[in-house]
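Weekly modeling sync, notes
Attendees: AB, CL, MP (scribe)

Item 1: holo prediction request
CL wants a bound-state model with pyridoxal-5'-phosphate before deciding which constructs to order. AB pointed out that an apo prediction alone won't tell us much about the pocket. Agreed to run with the ligand included and paste results into these notes for async review.

Input as submitted:
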Amino acid sequence: MITAKKIPVAKPRLPPLAALAPYIERIDGARWYSNFGPLNQELETRLAARFGLPAQGVVTIANATVGLSVALRAAGAQAGTLCVLPSWTFSASVHAAIDAGLTPFFADVDAEGVLTPAIVRDALKAAPGAVGAIMPVAVCGQPIDPAPWNALADETGLPVVLDAAPGFDAAKAGQGLSVVSLHATKILGVGEGGFAMSADPALAATVRLRSNFGFSGSREAQVAATNGKLSEYAAAIGLAGLDEWPARRAAFQAVAQRYRRNLADLPAATLPGGWGQDWLSTTCVVRLEDPAATMPVLDALHAASVETRAWWGRGMHTHRAFADYPRLALPTTERLAQTVLGLPFFIDMTNEEIDTVCTALREELVRCS
Ligand SMILES: Cc1ncc(COP(=O)(O)O)c(C=O)c1O
C-alpha cells in the first residue's frame, strides 16, 4: 500500500546560513552578545521605521509571553485585579496575565473570534471584582485597530495591552503597548523572540526597564523587573528576516491566495476576512458553518494525510490551569471551538499540496451537505 506523504500543519523556515553570516560576523567583531547590543539596536530601529514609530518606540524582547507580562506591568496594571481577555486565544495570553499578578477574566468574542470594545464594556459591568487591565488578541494575526482601544483606555482609565503575537504583518501600535512574537512559527521568526511597541516612547522605555533587571543607566534596580532581553544572535536572524521580508511575504501570500481561490465557492467553509488579501499570518484557519461536519471533515483530512490543528483548543476556560478563573457566558467561543480548523500553511507549500487539502475538505463538506 502506498501511503501519501503527510502534509504538516506548519513547516517553519528561517533565513539560511548565508543570509545570517554577515550579521554573525558583526557579533564576532563586536563581542557584544546581548544587553541591547548593536544588532538589537538596529533591529529596533528597522522595526520602528516599518511600523511608523519613533526610534524609541520599539523594544525587543525574549518572547511575546514575557513581553505581554512585562507590558501589563509597564502599563500600570495593578496586581490583584482582573484582566479582561478572550478565552479564544493561545494559553500564552493567559499565562502572561497571571505572571503579571492579574486574575484572568474570560470574555466572549464576536463571530470572527475577536474581542471588541463593546464586549469589554459589557464585561466591565459584569465583572466580579476590580478590573485592572484589558488584553485584546490579534486572533490568528488579524490586525487590531488600536484607535477604539485607545478610546476605551481613555474612557475607563484602564491600561489596554494588545496581544498582537501572531500579527507581525499587519500589527499597528497605538498609544498603548502592542506585543508581537518572533517565534519560529510566526511569519517573521527568529526562533524565540518578540518586541513591544508603542507610539508613546515613555511606555516603551518602561518595558525596556522592566525587561532588563530594572536597570537604566546604572546597575541599580529601579523597579521590580525580570530578564526578558533578546540575544544578539536572535537579533541577527531578525535582521536577516527583514532583509528577505518582501520575498518572504510574497511567497506566503501566493499560498494564501491559492487557498482563497480554491475555497471561494465553498460557503460551508470560510477563511478569515482579509487573510491573504489585506493581511497574512502563518495560521490558515477555516470556519465550518455546520458543527456536525467537523468530525467527518477531520477524519477525511486525516485519511488524505493532511495534518490539522485546533489552534485554540476548546477555549482557554477549558484548560485545567485556567478552569477556575471567572468568566462570562462564552457561546461564540464554544461554537468557534467546534467549528474552526487549522489547515496546513507554510512558505513553500506546493500547489499540489494546497489542492490536496482543499479537495479533501470540499469533498467531505459536499458529502455532509
Ligand atoms: C495570541 C498569542 N499570544 C501570545 C503568544 C506567545 O508568543 P511567544 O511564543 O513569542 O511567547 C502566541 C504564540 O503563538 C500567541 O498566538
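Recorded for review: The chain is about 40% helix and 10% strand.
Action items: CL to compare against the apo run; MP to circulate these notes.
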